[in-house]
Structures are given as C-alpha cells and as structure tokens.
Write a sequence for this structure.
C-alpha cells in the first residue's frame, strides 16, 4: 500500500481530486487531499496572515502528524509552489515528487515573479489580502474558492538544496492540450517548466492529451502515471 498526498491549485480545494483520488483508493492506497488554508472548505480560515509558508505547513503537518513516509507527493498548478517547499522541508518522507502541469519555481521565486504576474496584479484585491478570480468562461470548471490570499502569491520559495540533489524521484506531467497545443504556442510557466526537465535525466517526463485540469479531464491516465511510479 502506497501513500499519496495531493495538493490542489489556486482557488481549488479537496474537491479538485474527486475524480482522481477514488482511482487510487480503489487500488488499496491511502490518499490525503486536503484543502489548503483559506481555500475550498477551509475558505473561512483565510486572512491577511495566510501565505505560501502556511500552505507548505498545511502539508508538512499532515505528513508529520500522521507519520507518513515513502509518500508520493503531487501538486497541480499553484500546488507546485507548495510541494516544492514541502520537499525541501521534509525530503526524507518523500519517495516521489510529482508536478501535474504545475509551477516549478527556482529558489527565491514567487508566483508574482513568474509570467502572468501582471494579470494577477490587475485582479481585484478585497480587504487588502484576497485576490479575487474572474468568473470562469462557459465550459470551464468552477473553482470552489472565489479567491486566493495574496501572501500565497507574493512569498518566495526558499530551497536549501536543488530538487535534483534529493533522493526522491522527480516527475513532470505536462498537459499538452486537446487538441494539442501547437509548437509556436507552447509558452508560459508550465511549458517553460516542461522544457526545463523533459531532457533532464534526473526527471521523468510525460505528456497527457488534456487541458490544464488534466487530473479532472483524464483521471484514469493520470492515475496510471502515478501508479507507475510505485515500480520505479
């Protein structure tokens, strides 16, 4: 039996994993997929004090409190910021680190330092701390949270060692689009992360014919990739 810890993206929550998590538990594995502080069913805990360190501690606390080991730690989208910090804090508890079309920050980098930060800065900020997301266009999944504490986007990741120096395996799963994204349009943070690791022998790399919410669009394929790591 393996242990999976799944970290959702910005504006998400535990419900983000409603299609993927059962595919793992049905195989007899343990799955922890909490809502981060201030998001999803924990939106009522949001406030100006919530930052990236809060979300990193959310996951570290679960792993330490339950004494989890040999964890498959996976983050989607913004969740890449969180799992990067967790991997630096408790590397000995992690067997496999997985980025699901996720941000892959360098040491000292925040979400606001990445491409798209101008769009984030242009969003409405309520009460000085809640970045309010625009309404999703028709056909896009609704976010369980209406916004994100701004500190989670402003705080920089701090790494004591490069990820490649750690003993856990590293995997990046890129949502390649459906239909596939043309080569000349493969820009932005997620494609940049993919290009950074796809030919790096310290990483495993997969492409999935889905859009950004790959774990919701193609949960069976994503589950198969995650399960394949158990034999790595």
């Amino acid at each position: 039996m393996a242990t999976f810890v799944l970290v959702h993206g910005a504006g998400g929550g535990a419900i983000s994993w409603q299609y993927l998590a059962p595919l793992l538990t049905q195989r007899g594995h343990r799955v922890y997929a909490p809502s981060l502080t201030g998001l999803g069913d924990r939106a009522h805990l949001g406030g100006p004090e919530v930052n990236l360190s809060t979300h990193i501690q959310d996951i570290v606390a679960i792993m330490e409190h339950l004494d989890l080991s040999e964890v498959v730690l996976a983050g989607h989208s913004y969740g890449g910021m969180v799992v990067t910090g967790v991997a630096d804090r408790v590397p000995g508890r992690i067997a496999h680190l997985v980025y699901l079309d996720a941000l892959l920050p360098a040491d000292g980098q925040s979400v606001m330092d990445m491409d798209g930060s101008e769009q984030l800065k242009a969003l409405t900020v309520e009460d000085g701390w809640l970045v309010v997301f625009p309404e999703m266009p028709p056909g896009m999944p609704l976010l369980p949270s209406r916004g994100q504490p701004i500190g989670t986007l402003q705080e920089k990741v701090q790494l004591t060692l490069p990820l490649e120096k750690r003993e856990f395996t590293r995997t990046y799963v890129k949502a390649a689009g459906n239909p596939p994204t043309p080569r000349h349009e493969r820009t932005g943070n997620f494609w940049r992360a993919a290009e950074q690791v796809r030919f790096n022998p310290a990483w495993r790399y997969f492409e999935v014919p889905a859009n950004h919410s790959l774990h919701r669009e193609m949960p069976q394929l994503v589950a198969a990739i995650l399960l394949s790591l158990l034999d790595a």
Remarks:
- The longest strand covers residues 94-100.
- The chain is about 25% helix and 20% strand.
